[in-house]
Amino acid sequence: MAEADLLDVPALDKAAGEEFLQEAFGVILEEAVRRGTDVAEKVCDWKEPEDLRHLLDLELRGHGEPQPQVLQRCRDIIRYSVKTCHPRFFNQLFSGLDYHALAGRMITETLNTSQYTYEIAPVFVLMEEVVLQKLRELVGWGSGDGIFCPGGSISNMYAMNVARYHRFPDCKRRGLWALPRLAVFTSKECHYSIQKGAAFLGIGTDNVYLVGADERGKMIPAELEKQISQAQVEGAVPFFVSVTCGTTVLGAFDPLVAVADVCERHGLWFHVDAAWGGSVLLSQKHRHLLAGIERANSVAWNPHKMLTTGLQCSAFLLRNTSGLLHRCHSAGATYLFQPDKFYNVAWDTGDKTVQCGRKVDCLKLWLLWKAVGTEGLEKRVDRAFACTRYLVEEIKKREGFQLVMEPEFINLCFWFVPPSLRGKQAQADYWERLGKVAPAIKERMMKAGSMLVGYQPHGSKANFFRQIVTSPLVTRQDLDFFLDEIERLGRDL
What we know:
Aspartate Aminotransferase, domain 2; Aspartate Aminotransferase, domain 1; 2 domains; seven-stranded mixed β-sheet; 40% helix; PyrdxlP-dep_Trfase; decarboxylase; lyase; Cysteine sulfinic acid decarboxylase; pyridoxal phosphate
């Protein structure tokens, strides 16, 4: 075909494309949804990296492959991926599948639009504001601002950046030259994104003051006061305090009211990293864990964790109503945010962010919320607590299982002590030997594909398991299996 004639027909075969999609959706439904949530199937089909590279044939070539081979590629990709929707996947702070949220994700991908202007995303610009307003109401604010971000780490960085701009607005134009040495305060149990954010924004990790925590992992307000005084003595200017609601390992909730009092006395920005624990606000039974969150200046909250919306769905919420988020980040690109559009350009919200192209993250949460209502989301949160409570009581009945502490959230931290170590706590190498048990059990379960659960050391504590249940597909049978499997895999260690 002559080059000029190439333009007379589409470059894609629509009929063949639709046929491929029909078959591909069938593969997704069967392999990822049905088999991926079937307890009789493996959580993961473990392969060593070089073996997996060979199995997948990842090489990219000059010629395309026939449709049946491409469909087989789809099956292989799903087969060798970890099934995070599996009822026995307990490894992360996210897990499980919600069918309505998945439909939202598929619609989002198919429409393939960017969230930056009403012109190109009218439905989603309006939808995002409705969802953010609902989240702010749960925090306890009647008004405010916000934006969906690509993950809780970025939400925390936004908080730090907005707080700095609020205190020193000249920094947007003049940069670090306009700033004194700034000091950030957060708990020793904080998420590592606080230090990453300080590095990224030029504040520096040396200027992140880590405040002491008690034995349950909660920030000690008196220690915060001491660190603020210490920073001032060292010539730094305190401006930002970040507390955590749901620490990554222990699931601790910092004392918000007491910390808010400290922030008010010193005129500091009060940020709550509730990326993990924010969804507890939906539960009338458990929301007391976040008492005082309404006093925050900003909040990070990840519905993709407890609410199973799917990655990613992370909200940055702001109590300020003065347009602070827009003033801090706007660049006013006239090719995108033209001021003379025929509609109200206040709906062009993209200049609130440091991104240009921005994925639609609100639809999956909106569709889920529409389907089950606030009551359904509350039941989902309460059920996660009930699963953890059940496991706690079962652990107390079983020989060889030892709680690290009684959980107040759904982070269940425990050791499994194999028969060879029971009654030998007095031996000098006891904790060193116990610390090798969790990694050995983890290796065995991954190679068997039976389940997945995380472990880690913590301070002076040897490696222990951290089990998380968020999936609404998990049943009592899965919880019993979890404990039985730990015991089975570790009894000979």
